[in-house]
Specification:
Layout: E1 3-6, E2 9-12, H1 23-27, E3 30-38, E4 41-42, H2 45-59, H3 67-77, E5 84-92, E6 110-117, E7 129-135, H4 150-161, E8 168-173, E9 176-180, E10 184-189, E11 192-194, H5 205-216, E12 221-222, H6 228-232, E13 236-241, E14 245-252, E15 255-256, H7 264-279
Parallel strand pairs: 7-8, 7-14, 11-12
Antiparallel strand pairs: 1-2, 1-6, 3-4, 3-5, 5-6, 8-9, 10-11, 10-13, 13-14, 14-15
């Protein structure tokens, strides 16, 4: 059983017991972070932890640990025998004596950290994914990595009910496609890369790495959100996150993207991403 850190103590993950009065459980009043680990090393761990601290600050939860202390806690949780794993961190506003919406809150933050092995489903043999456009029904602070993810879950439920459980949901807001239900969005047209700006979307760390790779490879990048018609006419479309990494989209609704197969630009970026995560080279 994996080791967990919970409220100041290390214990087997199956022994973690969360109070029914924890505000993370009752209200989703909490911030989370997911950090991929390869060969015992966090990929861009500093950026992930800075995003955690920024999220806590944005919702008014005081971080119980410094950046250096967070690193130490995570190091103790990493599973030595697993080449590929993810670290999950959740910080809630804490436990009160009763369920209460109003402030002030007299509670200390609750902290949970654990590791889980994972394998990305995407490699060079990946045939590509279909996607469906959906109206963005999420709250208006999508840049905060909060655990209140019901709208994202409902988007995946809709795909499941439509018989498309492996498809992606691409969110449209004010006429523009801004991101996927758990991923950032990229589009390629005539060897130019487009991605929505970090304006009320999650500032993905994988997104950041892709932009670094684009700079290294001398690709022109525009941080612009495409409308649906423009996206459907793209040469390539990808989504990115820490677990699936770079995933190509080959069809959106009834529209085939490019050749209907993962594109050459995606392949080039995917290979550079693998070098980054395993070899730790600086892009």
């Amino acid at each position: 059983m994996s080791l967990a850190f919970f409220n100041g103590k290390y214990m087997p993950l199956n022994e973690v017991a969360i109070s029914p009065f924890d505000r993370g459980f009752l209200f989703g009043d909490s911030i989370y972070e997911v950090i991929p680990v390869y060969s015992g090393k966090m990929l861009e761990g500093e950026l992930h932890l800075q995003r955690l601290l920024s999220g806590l600050s944005a919702v008014g939860i005081e971080s119980p640990y410094s950046l250096l202390e967070w690193r130490g806690l995570i190091t103790n949780i990493i599973i030595g025998a697993e080449a590929t794993q993810m670290i999950y961190i959740q910080v809630t506003r804490g436990v009160e004596e009763s369920r209460n919406h109003r402030f002030p809150i007299k509670a200390l933050p609750s902290v949970l950290i654990f590791a889980t092995p994972f394998t990305s489903p995407v490699d060079l043999s990946y045939p590509g994914c279909f996607a469906t456009l959906q109206t963005d029904k999420r709250w208006q602070n999508c840049h905060i990595k909060a655990t209140s993810l019901l709208a994202n879950v409902m988007a995946y439920r809709q795909l499941y009910l439509e018989g498309k459980p492996q498809d992606e949901a691409l969110f449209i807001r004010n006429g523009y496609v801004v991101e996927a239900a758990s991923s950032n969005l990229f589009m390629v047209k005539d060897k130019v890369i487009y991605t929505p700006p970090i304006d009320n979307i999650l500032p993905g760390v994988t997104r950041h790495i892709i932009l670094q790779i684009a700079k290294k490879l001398h690709y022109q990048v525009h941080e612009i959100a495409p409308d649906a018609n423009t996206l459907e006419k793209a040469d390539e479309v990808w989504v990115s996150n820490s677990i699936e990494e770079l995933k190509p989209i080959i069809k959106i609704d009834d529209h085939c993207i490019g050749s209907g197969k993962p594109g050459e630009v995606w392949r080039e970026f995917w290979l550079h991403y693998q070098s980054k995560k395993w070899d730790g080279y600086e892009v």
